[in-house]
Amino acid sequence: MDMVNSSAVPFSIALVFIAAVITKVAWAKITAVPASSFNNTQPHPPEVITSITSAVRLLHTLVTKGFTSMLQEQYTKLGSVFTISFLGMKTTFLAGPEVSAHFYQGLESEISHGNILEFTVPMFGKDVAFGVDIATRTEQHRFYLDALKPAKLRCHVAPMLHEVEKYFAKWGQHGTVDLKQELEQLLMLISARCLLGKEVREKMFDEVFSAFHELTENSLQLTSLLFPYAPTPTTRRRDRASARLSSIFAEIVRSRKSSNRVEEDVLQNLVDSKYKDGRHTTEAEVTGLIIAILFAGKHTSTTSSTWTGARLLSHTECLEAALEEQQQIVKKHGDNIDYDTLLEMSFLHCCIKEALRMHPTAPIFLRKVRKNFTVRTREGYEYEIPSGHTIASPLVINHNIPYIYKDPDVYDPHRFGHGREEDRVGGKFTYNAFSGGRHACPGEAYAYMQVKVIWSHLLRNFELKLVSSFPETNWLKLSPEPRGKVEVSYKRRMLPRSMLEN
Ligand code: HEM
Ligand SMILES: *[C@@H]1O[C@H](CO)[C@@H](O)[C@H](O)[C@H]1NC(C)=O
Known about the structure:
By secondary structure, this protein is of the alpha+beta class. The protein has a domain at about 1-125 and about 360-400. Helix content is about 50%, strand content about 10%. The strands form four sheets. A seven-stranded mixed beta sheet has the order 1-2-3-4-10-7-5. Strands 6-14-11 form a three-stranded antiparallel beta sheet. Strands 8-9 form a two-stranded antiparallel sheet. β3 and β4 (about 90-95) form a beta hairpin. Bound molecules: protoporphyrin IX containing FE (HEM) and 2-acetamido-2-deoxy-beta-D-glucopyranose.
């Protein structure tokens, strides 16, 4: 689930802290373990054994240069596969597409999420996700894939557009806004409409989102993460919010069933989902699945649409190219936007993708090794990664490898365009913003669609300027986001269509 992403940074920072405080060994030892000559076992990856000194040094790099630089320093020094060991707990980093296949594709019996996501059980309930066995979880993942597959997405375009138009109609002729806050609001309205359905959007919006906020805030408190079942005030608030959401969704499901009403939203798809043995999802399962989807989609959508805006508004050439694309599409189809029009916005698509390359919602993914495996590095070394290790796929490295992404520090949406396609250079696992393989985000197409609906509307209808300086990344947030306000000034284009056609 998405929380891997979210928890990754605090998790790694916590590791560094703990190591700094407790480990007693004197100096950092970097030991590339050579192939053992007297048995046939494979060598293990080079290892950074953290002592106080090295932990302090890592921490120093982390604080002064940021999380990315800290990892990149190790990557440069040790190569694409290296282990950082803290207090006997080893995390092996697999950086770059050459060493990533098993991480993303390994069977659940070989590579698993481990217990990293146990804390989601009291959030989503014990009937879904990490509360259930792997077979059931796999089927529930299929429910998501079915509910969000392209054929099912067409029906969301009109309601999304409606929300977007209504929202921006409230803006004045000109003004200044905090883009991050505006997009967060708008995306909640869209989620309410397309994921949760009319009932919530029209009658229970505030109630649902305040309960959802209570649920997530209190679940992610350190005390709840460490002692999820202790009777503390936070866990009680969490459980009350969860109970409130359960009764709301149960009520909606019952009312739809009793009146034979069928909607087109994602909630309906989850209600209609069936396990292989023919059993329908229960009310508790539907509630858990829909809360989890809201959790997975909310923050990711807000940050990705905000970063896209901040990047576009800081790169005149890209902004003009994106506008030019909109003009071409308006010329061809008029003001109408439907599913196919959205698919034609390929440059805008690349702009979003490039924003996510530079600002992935998850800086690293973590997994647990359940069965030894061998990895062959680009340099030709073979290492064995033993069962029990935690493995990490560091997006902050993967997305910035210079032999794959030319000038990785430059925002350049054209890199994904025809002829270059840098995201394919290293095969399937070159670009990981939506994870990949077995646990790939089922909401990818939906997410692009939603951000395109918003940004095509903004480009067509407003002249926009980034007023504040380009936002820094707040790494201390659960899922990194633009720090502070993202102030944007807008001026309504008076006659969007005729002006665009000039
Ligand atoms: C730009 C926006 C988004 C990004 C970057 C993103 C990224 C991701 C990633 C990386 C994962 C996998 C995490 C892991 O490896 O465990 C994931 C999982 C998931 N995402 Fe997204 N996501 C986005 C938007 C959405 C949206 C809008 C939805 C729903 C409409 C969604 C639904 C899900 C669900 C349900 C899962 C968990 C799937 C499962 O394991 O069963 N995501 N997302
Ligand atoms: C897995 O690796 C560990 C450590 O290298 C080793 O002791 C163990 O024998 C290996 N297990 C198998 C099944 O190969």
